[in-house]
Each structure stands twice: as structure tokens, then as C-alpha cells.
Amino acid sequence: MTAADKRLDAYAQLIVEVGVNLEEGQMLDLTAHVEHAPLVRAITEAAYRAGARYVDVLYADAWVRRAKVEHASDDVLGWTPPWLAKRVEAFGDRGAMIRVEGDPAPGLLGDLDGHRVAHSRMRAYTEEELRLKNERLVNWTIVGYPTEGWARTVFGEPDVDRLWDAIAKTVRLDEPDPVEAWRAHVERLRARARALNALELDAVRFQGPGTDLTVGLLSQSRWGGAAEQTVWGRPHVPNVPTEEVFTTPDARRTEGIVRSTRPLAVQGAIVRDLEMRFEGGRASDVRATEGADVVRGQMEFDDGAAMLGEVALVDRSSRVGRTGVTFFSTLYDENATSHIAYGQGLLRGIEGAERVEGISQSAIHTDFMIGGPEIAVDGLARDGRVVPIIREDVWQLSES
Amino acid sequence: MTAADKRLDAYAQLIVEVGVNLEEGQMLDLTAHVEHAPLVRAITEAAYRAGARYVDVLYADAWVRRAKVEHASDDVLGWTPPWLAKRVEAFGDRGAMIRVEGDPAPGLLGDLDGHRVAHSRMRAYTEEELRLKNERLVNWTIVGYPTEGWARTVFGEPDVDRLWDAIAKTVRLDEPDPVEAWRAHVERLRARARALNALELDAVRFQGPGTDLTVGLLSQSRWGGAAEQTVWGRPHVPNVPTEEVFTTPDARRTEGIVRSTRPLAVQGAIVRDLEMRFEGGRASDVRATEGADVVRGQMEFDDGAAMLGEVALVDRSSRVGRTGVTFFSTLYDENATSHIAYGQGLLRGIEGAERVEGISQSAIHTDFMIGGPEIAVDGLARDGRVVPIIREDVWQLSES
Fold this sequence. Notes:
Shape of chain A: globular
Distance between the termini of chain A: 39 Å
Radius of gyration of chain A: 21 Å
Strand content of chain A: 25-35%
Strand order of the largest sheet of chain A: 16-15-12-6-5-20-21-22
Low-confidence stretches of chain A: none
Oligomer: homodimer
Number of helices of chain A: 13
Mean pLDDT of chain A: 94
């Protein structure tokens, strides 16, 4: 077995045992692009070894989707075939889901009608999958796999090996026992969330060059990180990698100015040196040295698009941040450093979210990175204390 | 566009316009292995251009199947997930089906329990698909696409380009207008079948070195070739390539000796210089310089396995035979020269087959090649005439 094969198997084992945390006898929905076949095969083998009852692989094909967007009639464009509706429904009965990401062909849809592209996702399928996740009826995870197209976007050349190396570091495959390293890592992030919740914060404040931003929280805001649990109590790690602790802010109470500290990939464009001002929760005065129009366009999409839906804290211990790579993929980039997201609020960051006012409602949710060595992060507690959370990119609170 | 891309597009167009003969507004079931993705993409594009309402691509993965055979419990092994049952059922409503063949990994299951391999096909899915085809409720075609594994089997090295060249010749992609060339070719095979049916044959006789075989026919035996029709009258070409005219013999009336003229690939083994004797329809005295055991094993499988289920005539005009390549794939090899098959009789070669006695019943159907330059083929008519059909590998009857 080559070193590359060993690494692939270790990755598959990590995804099955830590990511989705497959239970003996579960049905597994494994969704990927055809370009991800080597990882799909390794995951399938690992899943059966872990006691999967049946592994159902559904391969997508970006070129097949392109042909649909280009040629299919309007009524078929976002249609979910009844057999796929039946498929997603079947996994709602205590099934498990793994999705492999890694765009095989960035920009493939770039020359097509944007409206048709936006409407070409299978709505019923996507909504049902989201419901199963939100109602915690499945244990699930999202993971990445390098493709030539993605490597070209990241490095300017199709250097898949280099992207593999970077991904391997972000998911701790360089550790002697990655599964054990992840268990410790998940515990550390959970401890960070516990420490933050114990502070009973009213707001978080970011200060540094070009940034002085106060993000107000709701009394129901809860910090979370790394792991979630199904309704029947099965823990799983929805994103591999993950480095953040996050919560959902009071969309009405963001104030100040902020400057992004890393480039942002959004809708196929790159946004650099993004800056904006918040007043009464709403962003204005959006500027950037590149790509400002894309952000402005998003923020005009609906009423909640220009308000914050997430605030997340990451320090320099992040395996993603330490690679120094911009992955142009949210799964990775949002874990590089502290970030905020404009648009839809994360419902899982709120207790009883459906009854809470002050959560941003939007069809948009875009994360952008605002942390780094020069950014001090403080917690403003309800009792008036100011508590240092991150200084010089180092976490200041308890991690145990 | 490169020459290779042009060839791929011409092939896809041929498959859509001649093979499946897609109707405007049809749903298309396109099934393939992940290794066939380039052809799948070209077919999808061609199908939408030809007016497909929706193209549903289902990718299979030989390694995922291997993992299932190796690990899944007995009750799941041949199970059809309900969503796949719903899928095949949906195409029964005037849908179209294209299946791409070309083994990506010959021998991949070779070290596994043969009984489990045999029982790992999705029975309900396979049977429902067969029913739709037999009841002519879909227009369908089976085509090939070269893979590295297949090329290695054929040439001893993974020379995919060479296999592509051979396949391209068998399907007439070297013609200036392949679609037009196929229309003429289909007409010629239909004319051959008409001429044979007009003779009202009682038997077909093959004579040559090591061969003097008389294959008795039923009064209901009908010669067919190239094209079939759906119940609503849509013609299609089930196999691309196809070079044969064939019928279903009276399984009780094969007499004489026969020697195969080409190697035969069966169950992963190669059979060379196969010889056997027929008495009262039943084969005995099976010999070969290589692989005789495999044939003997098959013939012992059930009662009909040692009787003939098909007789098919092909002359030297065959595009497959002219490549000189043994493809180790029935889709190609049975079209190289005249052949017979032991095992299950072809029901579509018989009028009202369910009520006819004398058709071989078996779970086996293995074609082997018995034609060539030294083999004379005669028709023995019911009125006693002896009519030359093939002499020195040249067709002797009317072709118009």
C-alpha cells in the first residue's frame, strides 16, 4: 500500500468514525462528484467495516448539471425526480449522510444565465435534506476532496498533490492517530464554547487596523462548536475540518467599522480588502479593492442580507489558518480565522429559534474573515465586565 | 475542438439518434460507470439537443459493488433500494434507456465468493428493467466505452486509444456521416432477415473444418436484426454495434459436431478451440485446448444450459470481425462472425413465445463464434430445397 493510499484510508476512517460517527446497522447516504471516486471508494470500505448496513452512493456530475441549465425547460430546471425525493426521505429514518465537496470545475456555469443557474438546484431535495439536518434526524458530515479544477483555482495550476497536502494538514492526517487527535480537538472546541456561554455575554468586540466592531448578542444566543447530536443522542462533527466556535447575533445590534483580513471567494469572484460600516445592525458604505460590487449585489438581495447572521471565533491554533492557503471554499476558509457572516442567521446557534426576534432572515449567508494577529477580541458581559477572548491571535479563556 | 472530442460527439449523436432514437420530450435513463463520464457528458448534451425532457444519469462504481459483496449482510446483498425501484418504474411510462458498458476493472471480483457475487445484482431492479424491454415499453440501447481495465484485457496494456480506434470502426465513426451509414446498415440487416424469413427454413447447416452442424428451427422461429420497435411504434437499435441476423432454434433438434473459430471470454476465463457434439439437441463431449472446464460447468448448471438458444448469421462485411480484435465483451464479439449460443432461448426471436414448446429454458446464455471463411452456411427449407446463405464468408441472399 502506498503512502497516498494509507493517507486516503486514514481520511476515510476519520470521516466515518469522527465526522459522521456511523452507527452499526445504519444506512449511509454518500453523495459526491464523479471526480471524488477514490475517496468515495475508501469511505464505502470504511463504512462497511464500521458496520454500515448499506452504502448508497449518489454521484453528481457538474457537466450533466450544466447541460440541464443550458437546455432543460423551466418546469424541469429545479424539479426533484420522485425517485430522488424517495431517496432522501428514506434516510430520515435514523440514516447517516456524508457529502464530499471539492468543485471539479470552478466557473463551469459562469457563461450561463445566472437566474437559471440559481433555479437549477433540486429544491424539494435540498429542502428535505436541510429539514433532516435541522431537526437532527440524521448524523451527517461534509468533507473535502481535491480535484484538478479546485487546485487550479487555489494555486493557479492543477497541483492536486499540493492541495491534498494542505487538506491533510487541516484535518490532522499528519497526527500519529488522527481519530484520537480529533477527539481531543473536538473536546477543546466544546470547552471553548462552554467558557463563552459561562461568560453570559451581551456583545463581542473586534478591534484592530480598520476595525472597531461591536456585535450584539441575544439573551438566547448559545455558543457551539465542532460536534452536534441527533435527536437519539448520536454525536457527529458536521464539518471536517472545523476550528470555530460560533453563535447567532442580534441582527439589530451590530455597530462600527470592519475590514476583512483575508480574501473572500463568493459567487466565482474574489473580493479583496473588503470594508464596511454597521449602524443599527445594517451594513453600508461597502468598499473593496476588488469585487465590492458582488458584495453590494448580495446585500441588496433581500432585507436581511445586509445584517449579520453569525459571529465565529478562531485563533492561531487553527490548522486551516496555519496552512496559509486560501482554499476558495467556505468549508475551509471560514475555519482559518475569526469571521462574521452577513445574511441568514444560524438557527442552531439559538435556543427555540422559531420564537426569537432579532435573527436575520435572508436567502444569503456569506462568511468573511476578520481575525488575525492584530485583532483583539473582547467579550462584553451583561454585568459590564470586559473579558479578553483573543489577544495576538491566542485564545485567552479556559480550554478544558 | 480536438479530433477526439469530435469523435466523441459524433458517437453520442449516433447513440441518441440511431441507438435509442430519442423522441422529443422523453425522459432518458442514462446508466454508466464513473469511468464512462466523458461519454455520459457527450450523450447528455446530445440528448438535450435532441429534445430530451430530462436526462437522469445513474453512475455505478465497481469498487462500491465489490465492498457490498465483501461486507453486506445476505439480506441486503441483492436488495433493490425502494428509490431505485421507483426510478426504473418511472421510465416504464414511455421513457428511453441508454446503458454504457466497458468493464472498468475486469477481474475485480475474482477473489470473492462466487455465490455472493452471483447474488449481488439488484434482482428487483434488473427484472423490472428486463420486463420493460421485453414488453417493449421503452426504447433502449446498449453501447460501449473504452476504459483502461478493458484495454488491458484486450491488448495486454492499458492502451485506451487503440481500443477507442477499434470501437470507432465497429460503430462506423470513420464514415463521413455515421448516422446515415447506420440507417443504410440497419436497412441491410432488416433485408437479410426478410430474405431468411421468406425462405421458410426448417434448419440451418454449418459445414467446414471440424464442423458439420444442423440447427433445427421451429415453425414460429422468426429472423430479426438490428432494429426493434416499442409498443407505440418507435424504432430503436438495442445494440450498437450490431451485425447479426438471429433467430431462436428448436432446442431439441440440433445435430452434429461444431468447432469454434474464435476465442471466447466467459466468466473471466478464456476458452480456445472449443469443440462439442450435439445429439437430440443436447451438447456432449465438450473439449477445448483451454478453458473447457468453464463451459462444462456452465452446461451442467441447469437442464437447458446444454441446448441451443440462439443461432445468428454474420458474414465478412462485419465491422467488428474486420477489426481482427477479440474484445472479450459479448456486445462486440458476438457480432464478429456467425455464432450459436447455448442456454436460454431468445424470446424476441419467436412469435407468441410463451405458448411455444421447444425453446431452451436456462439461467445461462453464452454465445460462441463458429463462422469464418472456411464455413459454408446453408438453409434447409421446409420444401426440401438447400439454399446457400454464406459462402467464403460472403452473404448469398438478397440484401434489399
